[in-house]
Amino acid sequence: MTPERFNRLRATLDKRQPDLTVLTDYVHKGRNLSAIVRTADAVGVGDVHCVIGDKDYRSFRGTALGSHRYVKVHRYRELQSPVSELKAKGFQIVAAHLSEQAVDYHDVDFTKPTALLMGAEKDGISDEASELADIHVTVPMVGMVESFNVSVAAGIILSEARHQRELAGLYQQQRIDQAEYELLFFEWAHP
Amino acid sequence: MTPERFNRLRATLDKRQPDLTVLTDYVHKGRNLSAIVRTADAVGVGDVHCVIGDKDYRSFRGTALGSHRYVKVHRYRELQSPVSELKAKGFQIVAAHLSEQAVDYHDVDFTKPTALLMGAEKDGISDEASELADIHVTVPMVGMVESFNVSVAAGIILSEARHQRELAGLYQQQRIDQAEYELLFFEWAHP
Ligand SMILES: C[S@@+](CC[C@H](N)C(=O)[O-])C[C@H]1O[C@@H](n2cnc3c(N)ncnc32)[C@H](O)[C@@H]1O
Ligand SMILES: C[S@@+](CC[C@H](N)C(=O)[O-])C[C@H]1O[C@@H](n2cnc3c(N)ncnc32)[C@H](O)[C@@H]1O
Predict the structure, then answer these.
(1) Which range among A20-24, A55-59, A97-101, B185-189 shows the weakest confidence by mean pLDDT?
(2) What residues form DSSP beta bridges with A23?
(3) Ligand 2 atom at minimal distance to the Cα of residue B140
(4) I need a labelling partner for B125 at 20 to 30 A (CA). Which of A148, A186, B78, B115 fits?
(5) CB contact, 8 Å: B143 with chain A?
(6) What is the residue extent of each domain of chain A?
């Protein structure tokens, strides 16, 4: 391994945020999932949780749907179980959802343990997801379109989360525990 | 026309920002261009300038590459002419470019007349574009990936521009001139 690569792996692990994650609610286009996972990596998110429909689940089983060398993509057939797990760990569930009660994405505290929930390309956030969420956030729009592409919306909100966490110093200290750090370093370093 | 649609068209025209635009430097995937144009509309940008290669230019001639009902997409075969036109109108050219001299995207004044220049999927900002730009901006990244998807990067930076312009009150007053307003209203209202 070159020293550059060694340093790069460590710099990434040094900044991973175990208390920030993305949850997708039936987002099913591979290129959207891939872009979301790529953005997750870029802001220090090491785990992404994807609820995908039965049909997609079967057809994508064993394939690389949204998979990424440095981000773990966990797949589910329904939303309840990942939400319960995350809530049990103290995560707030923040749904990107253009509902009546949604707040501006700048007004959410993303330094708290947070799972950002993104809705499906066509149907958006499901009723179930809307109810399970603790907060709804919106990215204000001033044009004729009704919404952003889902991977663009995720990028906008995750960048705000990164910015808040940078200001709070959360990238300046190791956030994942030492055992996890060493395990990931080992996995990444030995292809 | 329904009263809802009438109001929607007017609300959009009321917020259009004639001094904010996007310029793409050989971005060539249709879905990336479409996502960029959709985001442009959402932040009040009514004109997008796309430099596309000779090959793409020929194959996309007459097709809907990135085209949009409410955003004018201007296509060019090289970068010099749109840049000269925009500079002559007083626009700063802000290149999204991971260069040594790049500044954080929060540190650019997007309330000034601005053209945001986005680079190609594989090659990024060309040397020519890098030199023509007044400023280079970067969206900080803390992971293993080298860059965001181009439409995601555009969305992140344009949202910051929208946010700054909102704080500066630029969406609270009609910004396009009355003749343009009426012309666009007429075009949009009569399909
Ligand atoms: C293409 S949109 C879905 C649009 C769908 N027709 C609806 O009404 O929700 C896909 C997802 O992107 C996210 N999204 C898109 N634009 C957004 C915005 N302006 N604010 C918050 N989330 C947004 C939401 O998670 C949404 O469910
Ligand atoms: C996929 S990237 C190109 C990557 C290319 N290999 C390079 O080195 O520039 C496509 C375009 O998205 C924009 N972009 C992507 N990530 C960015 C970031 N972190 N900061 C600023 N612009 C970015 C830039 O305009 C870039 O040219």
Answers:
(1) A55-59
(2) A49, A117
(3) 19
(4) A148
(5) yes
(6) 17-175
